[in-house]
Automatic annotation (TrEMBL):
This is glutathione transferase. Residues 22-149 form the GST C-terminal domain. The keyword Secreted does not apply. GO terms for molecular function: glutathione transferase activity. It is found in: Cytoplasm. Its main location: cytoplasm.
Amino acid sequence: SIAILLYLARKFKAPDHWYPSDLQKRAKVDEYLSWQHVTIRGKGSSLFITKVLRPLLTGQPVSPEKLKSVTEELNVVLKQFEEKFLQDKPFIVGSEVSLADLVALVELMQPFSAGYDLFAARPKLAAWRERVEEALGKPLCQEAHEALL
């Protein structure tokens, strides 16, 4: 959870870039972490549930109309994410990776694992993903997402 991430960053005095001491940068991290619950997480989970879990649990195929609807909803928040949070910066807060980037990447991997390549038609988002994975370490990212993918 977000509360646990923030607790751990404070308790173990994580490097400043994760949860910056600079109040403006910290506010950007907090803003994203508050925004993502009903946007990126909500819409990404909805696509995953619709495309993967519901058919698995019910044995029924997903309706093309429902899949189109949840995909369009996700696309709206992905556009907002790029325009509001990424803008023309390497990371959400600026030049360094933060908890906001970590949480965003994890949330975006769920619809990606459902077979929706949300990075393919979004070069800005794809480049951001590359930077985040580089900052975290590609082997660690692969290991973290192995079961999901």
